[in-house]
Amino acid sequence: MKRNIAVLQGDGIGKEVTRGAVEILEAVAQRYGHEFDFQYGDIGGGAIDLTGSPLPDETVKICKNSDAVLLGAVGGPKWDDQPAHLRPERGLLKIRKDLNLYANIRPISYYSSLSESSPLKKEFIEDVDFVIVRELTGGLYFGTPSERVERDGEEAVVDTLFYQKSEMKRILELAFALASDRKKKVTSVDKANVLESSRMWRETAEEVSNDYPDVTLEHMLVDNAAMQLIKNPKQFDIIVTENMFGDILSDEASVLTGSLGMLPSASISTQGPNLYEPIHGSAPDIAGKNLANPIGTILSAASMLRLSFGLEDEAHAVEQAVETVLEYGLRTGDIANGQPEITSTSEMISEIKASLLDQEAISNIMGAYA
Amino acid sequence: MKRNIAVLQGDGIGKEVTRGAVEILEAVAQRYGHEFDFQYGDIGGGAIDLTGSPLPDETVKICKNSDAVLLGAVGGPKWDDQPAHLRPERGLLKIRKDLNLYANIRPISYYSSLSESSPLKKEFIEDVDFVIVRELTGGLYFGTPSERVERDGEEAVVDTLFYQKSEMKRILELAFALASDRKKKVTSVDKANVLESSRMWRETAEEVSNDYPDVTLEHMLVDNAAMQLIKNPKQFDIIVTENMFGDILSDEASVLTGSLGMLPSASISTQGPNLYEPIHGSAPDIAGKNLANPIGTILSAASMLRLSFGLEDEAHAVEQAVETVLEYGLRTGDIANGQPEITSTSEMISEIKASLLDQEAISNIMGAYA
Ligand SMILES: [Mg+2]
Ligand SMILES: [Mg+2]
């Protein structure tokens, strides 16, 4: 298979972690006989410094000509005082819009070797394996009017939650399709006892579920979902919800396993390339020090192999390689949890690569650590 | 001190748990020389059966003539198939409206004796002691329009988030006043990077904070707050937020300590009596079996003593009595966590009462359990 991958390294640790993911993708190409071609584009603060824009047209062009986009992270104190349109984060908002990314997918997986890092007791968190599917372009964050008004002679304010039925339908279809390939359960989260938009969401979920007779649909109110994520996260397979609820719940879920630096994400396009990125930020405090955890970005690359290229075996091999090095006890600082021996970014990348290319070789390398 | 207390027992375990709180309030009156007069009113399913309405006018009258209202819980399978206006929960919505309850207060406290019940590891949850202050009458749950519309020839839907400045101001003032009497820190939660209503909320919080120079104000985005509640709940003193964010975060917070049956709440009126109730429901499955945990309602009564009557010592004595029986190892089923010996509702109430009236007496009683 031959594929073009756009790589937007961004700022801070973005460079180090995307470099890691590219190395792993190259190893995948080598082991499985694929050809991945990497085109680099600027985004974020670095792009502002070079071109005056957080997302130059050239970068958009590179992305649109690619089969998938890999992104690191953007931002840093250097650009904190810029006017709004020159903030690095604007580059993120604009790329999401330019690529028509309507869904964000966040898998939350438990690694038994990292159980010390979780705030939750082991019996609550072990074997957790679910995916949050969040609508990304509609709802309260984008509706109009969103403005100050006058009411009864005093200042007041209005924001608007707006959805078209087709926007609900396409994300619910994505959720059911993902569930079909997993544990065949969709938990649709809404506030249907109060919101009209949630009642329409719930109806649409019921309609879409008719096309997936082998997938179980359950409805859950958002306040209850916020409880259940902590009380019993094992119950979930696919959680699907609208934009704002998804924003809150996916960030809540991201701290359950205690390893933010490990978590990948995928944003799905209506047409054109999807975008893959770790959920962590640019961490300017450790940038360039060979301390960043590259695993979130490497697992994002695994998601790319699975979701954009249909390469399930390859995706699984990358995930397996990550699990192997964790079981050997390799830890970057963010997941070390008091362990004195810290693995650097570049070491972590090499060991994952070694594990991917040759399961025997890694055993030998690891002997040195024993 | 002489005070009139309206008691709305409601359905299911509501009767048992309010009976417990009344017994404790009577013990407080006895020990401290107060006079509490209890007037009983119907609400919920029982009220529907008796009068045809989930909140009869007579009940509203009793409440309005009281100094504070104590509520149990409403609802049950018997009334699940009623039309919307004859559902027990309608009684709750209506009493909140009739009493002008604009703020809901939920304290989240850690009991070291219950650390086994929490999903969180002890080091994350111990010494947690914060209060969530939620706006209760405005925002997305009440704004209009809230309806189906047509857009671009297809079905669409709109909900509306609306706030007047005065609604924001009064709840923020309440939060700062509460913080003044506690650890002097207010965390105001919003989504000011996206919502205009949140930007007005943040401005209003800044304005109100000028009147409380000894209280520290910090702003936190709602998605980050959902993470921080799990990662580091000890950082909080008072969390204040608008209605929907408060709905989600207060339910999330309620499972952190692992003892939903322990948690009290208070709803504050613009004028007139406040309402105090446990956060748990009517639990029809265990109703009438002497199995319910009365502590949530007893601690709600303690909040009544503190917030409505200004009786801080008395409130503290009740809380202390609860802590004492927990330390002795008494557990209702919901907090037993595998412990074979289960304390009944009535036993739990007697022991808390005994502890409140005579610290020595309880030691003797407890001898029998040793
Ligand atoms: Mg977020
Ligand atoms: Mg709720």
From TrEMBL, chains A, B:
Main subcellular location: cytoplasm
Binding annotation for Mg(2+): D223, D247, D251
Residues reported to bind substrate: R96, R106, R134, D223
Keywords: Amino-acid biosynthesis, Branched-chain amino acid biosynthesis, Cytoplasm, Leucine biosynthesis, Magnesium, Manganese, Metal-binding, NAD, Oxidoreductase
Top EC group: oxidoreductase
UniProt pathway annotation: Amino-acid biosynthesis; L-leucine biosynthesis; L-leucine from 3-methyl-2-oxobutanoate: step 3/4
Family matches, as InterPro entries: IsoCit/isopropylmalate_DH_CS, IsoPropMal-DH-like_dom, Isopropylmalate_DH
One record GO biological process: L-leucine biosynthetic process
Coiled coil region boundaries: none
Cofactor(s) demanded: Mg(2+); Mn(2+)
Signal sequence bounds: none
Cofactor: record remark: Binds 1 Mg(2+) or Mn(2+) ion per subunit.
Keyword Magnesium in annotation: yes
Compartments, as annotated in UniProt: Cytoplasm
Domain spans labelled Isopropylmalate dehydrogenase-like: 4-352
Binding residues annotated for NAD(+), in chain numbering: 76-89, 281-293
Residues carrying the site annotation Important for catalysis: Y141, K191
Reaction catalysis annotation: (2R,3S)-3-isopropylmalate + NAD(+) = 4-methyl-2-oxopentanoate + CO2 + NADH
Molecular functions per Gene Ontology: 3-isopropylmalate dehydrogenase activity; magnesium ion binding; NAD binding
Similarity field: Belongs to the isocitrate and isopropylmalate dehydrogenases family. LeuB type 1 subfamily.
Its biological purpose: Catalyzes the oxidation of 3-carboxy-2-hydroxy-4-methylpentanoate (3-isopropylmalate) to 3-carboxy-4-methyl-2-oxopentanoate. The product decarboxylates to 4-methyl-2 oxopentanoate.
Name of the protein this chain belongs to: 3-isopropylmalate dehydrogenase
Organism per entry: Peribacillus muralis
